[in-house]
From TrEMBL:
Signal peptide: none annotated. This is Polysaccharide deacetylase. The lineage of its organism: Bacteria, Bacillati, Actinomycetota, Actinomycetes, Micrococcales. GO terms for biological process: carbohydrate metabolic process. It comes from Beutenbergia cavernae (strain ATCC BAA-8 / DSM 12333 / CCUG 43141 / JCM 11478 / NBRC 16432 / NCIMB 13614 / HKI 0122). It comes from the Bacteria. InterPro entries: Class_I_gatase-like (IPR029062), Glyco_hydro/deAcase_b/a-brl (IPR011330).
Length: 573
């Protein structure tokens, strides 16, 4: 797959187009940028405005059977795309059409939040795949000669990043008008920078509601309240991938990709624990609850104080992961926002746990300031995966940052880098049956499964100790996820898997009989799942083939233990 060479950005503005490489890398789709004079090939993704000369080259190529996906302002490509452009949108909801098109295999059940984009007016012969609120097209498809063009008027890449990473946190956010999400609490936290809208992007869990007129934000919740029930960023990612696979299928191109998880696994679950209070009796209660649940958790250790050596040794013996729970709540010395403070707390966690290499963190109370500075601190410490971005209020549970997937954050404009080397692992809710209504559990599991991501549930020792309903909810949650085929992984295991699978490259070369698939792995990968178009036949080194449905599309899953180095297979239809 090719990302068509972009013109240099016009100034210091954030270059959202750069995020295309992260979307493709996470999907395990090998890709390359085009150089001046290159001929287009495979599926071409246009992420930045092109020159008139580029447009002529791409038009001739599409007419001869090329596949083009445009996520940038079409400009000189407008005639090829069969659209004219209209007014710009800063943010709005987009309705994706499920009927009358064969492009989509999986569509969101209700409108998606788009951040940025242009209205499109389709010409005759151009199909509207999604619409803005005023009825203008937000995504279109058109056949041109023997080829196809899909055009995103909605800024799909900016939408993914903005929803996942939000805006810089500099002040309290605006609370929900129904009182269910009082985020204006004089504490700067991740939710204060949300791009999703509390009034229009939430919904009640199925079968619940309405919210009582006298609702107050108390614990446990007096009723179910609206939640961020849909992972908007993941839906945008899915729509972009679906357009690539459709364009490839229509033009006879093969685009293999690497399953997000090992063979046969469509989604996983993650449980974390915060050691708030550091009381040994709470720590022991948590150990007992997790033993009953049969889950190894990421145990986030919070400064100041500590459980004492017996509890820390028991946590290690049970196979739980020791992580940092960075405290910037101003409730103790060193408990404030800043590099010296997190550095000191990291050293404290190393000392009390006896674990030198701590790779995971979650911020106490989901504290956050700025946009991405925190990731630079993680990089300096050696923290490789952070799970701070999630809810602190009943009305912000679910997918407040629109995702169940791990991802590398886009760096700020002018930072001298494109991405931060810290995986973001989203948090979805805290303490079922205390901080979150029991009805949200299955909505979160459903959303993570639908997008093949991670469902992340947090518990606290004090609630597992003194609140029987929360303890029971923890054990029932563990059983429910396993009954769905979801395995429970620690953050460290997720981090190791994601970084290992990103060392795999899939290359396809056409032959007289079909294709040669060459897989290059930097290190061995046990249980790799290579997804190929349904019906493809495979010959070569030991493997198994099954059918797998991902993003609503049926694929042939080539399951194999990859050795380091290159392995090749022959593919035929």
């Amino acid at each position: 797959m090719t990302i068509w060479a972009a013109q240099p950005p016009p100034g210091p503005a954030q270059e959202w187009a750069e995020y295309a490489t992260e979307v493709l890398a996470h999907a395990g789709i090998s890709h390359a940028g085009s150089d001046a004079g290159d001929a287009p090939s495979g599926v071409v993704l246009v992420t930045s405005p092109v020159t008139p000369a580029d447009a002529e080259t791409l038009a001739a190529w599409v007419e001869q059977g090329g596949a083009l996906v445009v996520t940038a302002e079409p400009g000189p490509l407008s005639a090829l795309a069969g659209v004219t452009t209209g007014a710009a949108s800063s943010t709005a909801q987009v309705t994706v059409h499920g009927d009358g098109t064969d492009v989509w295999t999986h569509v969101p059940p209700r409108p998606l939040r788009a951040v940025g984009g242009l209205a499109l007016t389709p010409a005759e012969g151009t199909t509207t795949l999604a619409s803005w609120p005023d009825g203008s097209a937000a995504i279109t498809a058109r056949r041109h000669g023997d080829g196809v063009v899909v055009t995103f008027g909605a800024d799909v890449l900016q939408s993914i990043v903005r929803i996942q990473q939000g805006f810089a946190v500099v002040a309290d956010g605006v609370p929900a008008s129904d009182g269910t999400a009082p985020i204006d609490d004089d504490i700067l936290k991740a939710e204060d920078g949300m791009a999703l809208d509390l009034e229009t992007d939430r919904a009640l869990p199925p079968g619940e509601g309405p919210v009582p007129d006298d609702y107050t934000h108390t614990y446990p919740p007096p009723s179910a309240v609206p939640m961020f029930d849909q992972p908007h960023a993941d839906w945008w990612r899915s729509l972009l991938l679906q357009s690539v696979w459709w364009a490839a299928e229509e033009t006879g191109v093969l685009v293999p990709w690497l399953g997000y998880w090992p063979e046969g696994i469509s989604a996983i679950a993650h449980m974390s624990h915060d050691s708030d209070g550091n009381k040994p009796e709470d720590g022991q209660a948590a150990l007992d609850a997790f033993a009953d649940a049969g889950v190894q958790v990421t145990w986030c250790q919070v400064f100041p104080g500590g459980y004492g050596p017996e509890i820390y040794e028991a946590i290690t013996a049970a196979g739980h992961e020791h992580a940092l729970h960075y405290n910037a709540m101003h409730d103790a010395d060193l408990a404030s926002w800043g590099w010296p403070q997190i550095r000191a707390q990291y050293a404290w966690a190393q000392a009390v746990t006896g674990r030198e290499r701590i790779v995971s963190n979650k911020n106490h109370y989901t504290r956050w300031e700025g946009w991405t500075e925190f990731y630079t601190w993680c990089e300096r410490l050696g923290i490789e995966i952070d799970e701070s971005r999630g809810p602190s209020k009943q009305g912000t549970v679910g997918f407040p940052f629109g995702t169940a997937h791990v991802s590398f954050p886009l760096a700020e404009a002018g930072a001298g880098r494109t991405f931060h080397d810290v995986l973001n692992l989203p948090l979805h809710t805290q303490d079922l049956a205390w901080a979150g209504h029991a009805s949200i559990r299955d909505v979160i599991l459903d959303g993570a499964q639908a997008q093949h991501g991670v469902a992340h549930f947090l518990f606290h020792g004090p609630h597992l100790n003194i609140r029987p309903m929360t303890r029971a909810a923890c054990v029932e949650l563990a059983d429910e996820a396993r009954s769905r085929g979801m395995q429970w992984w620690t953050a460290e295991r997720i981090n190791t898997w994601e970084r290992t699978r990103r060392g795999v490259r899939l290359d396809v070369t056409a032959t007289d009989e079909g294709w040669t698939l060459r897989v290059e792995a930097q290190t061995p990968v046990t249980g790799a799942a290579i997804l190929l178009p349904a019906g493809v036949r495979v010959t070569g080194p030991d493997h198994t083939l099954t059918q797998a449905v991902r993003h609503g599309r049926t694929f042939t899953e080539l399951a194999v233990d990859l050795p380091a180095g290159a392995t090749t297979w022959s593919l035929t239809r």
